[in-house]
Amino acid sequence: xxxxxIHIPFCKTRCIYCDFYSTxxxxxxSRYIRALCKELQMRKEYLRGEAVETIYFGGGTPxxxxxxxxxxxxxxxxxxxxxxxCREITxxxxxxxxxxxxxAMLQRLPFNRISMGIQTFDDAMLKQLNxxxxxAQAADAVEHCRRAGFGNISIDLIYGLPGETDERWKHDLQQxxxxxxxxxxxxxxxxxxxxxxxxxxxxxxxxxVDEESSLRFFSTLADTLGNAGYEHYEISNFCRPGMxxxxxxxxxxxxxxxxxxxxxxxxxxxxxxxxxxxxEEYIAAVESGGRRFEKEYLxxxxxxxxxxxxxxxxxxGVPLHDVERKFGKELWQYCMDMARPHLHNGQLExxxxxxxxxxxxxxxxxxxxxxxxxxEE
Length: 377
What we know:
The protein is of the alpha/beta class and 377 residues long. The chain has 2 domains: 2-251, pyruvate-formate lyase- activating enzyme (Alpha-Beta Horseshoe); 300-372, Arc Repressor Mutant, subunit A, CATH 1.10.10. It is built from 15 helices and 15 strands. A 9-stranded mixed beta sheet has the order 7-8-6-5-4-3-2-1-9, sandwiched between helices.
């Protein structure tokens, strides 16, 4: 099985924290969609005939597309890859785009999962982040999706925002739970160089939350969603039983995926590729019959390190039998040796021959990942 990721870089406005490739040049949308479809055709051999199980439209703001744009892309996927094995087809969307009319239109398309970036239910903070919606529109968007018949809705939250308090974060979580969605992703704010929020931090106009508060916010997150019946299946992701994101899980489990569009990444177990992060250069290259991209060949050590780094984040953990089979006895032994202190102090445990983080281990997961990864002398 394999996945396809479609990057739609268009945004009406830029959020001050976002470092994903995006552009406000919507006048190039039609040319971009044609280029996307051409890239899908050009790269149909990349997945080596693997059946496509998931499709994910990410961005940017994919909900800036119209029905005819989606139909054009779906037709290209159907023609060159087939969609008969697809189990999950996700659209990332902004809440204010998800009107009754727009969600009714989406229901006429193959989408069966909606992922919306709510981030917070605090209107003042949404305005500071340069989000286009307010809390009421977020709740309305979920309702519109329900009325249109969508039974798989995910929302994104951000915590550790400037001025974050325990009370505001608890309120955000209570609001999220009250929406009764199938999936919630919650990420700690990171200050990425090149973003507006990073500039504000450097100018001392805002302050980062301290580490103690960050740990407390995460603990509140895990407890609140756990008590509400959500499974904590990945460090930042929670779902109703069985409703995990199949597409994102494919990243963590090392399943091949094709990424099309400006800045999109691809992985087929042997190589990793990423397209140029420029709308104009991406379109020009594809229109001329080529691609602007970089490529990395993955050696055994790199593949081992990626396996550890991604799988340890999930409730399923590192598959130790796969480590030995794919990477050899030496790296399996290295993994076990480096895991031993964390097993001893209760930060890791072995379940069904999988190396898994405990609740205690999640709080120091970055250090555990670093220890398990192999660095050649």
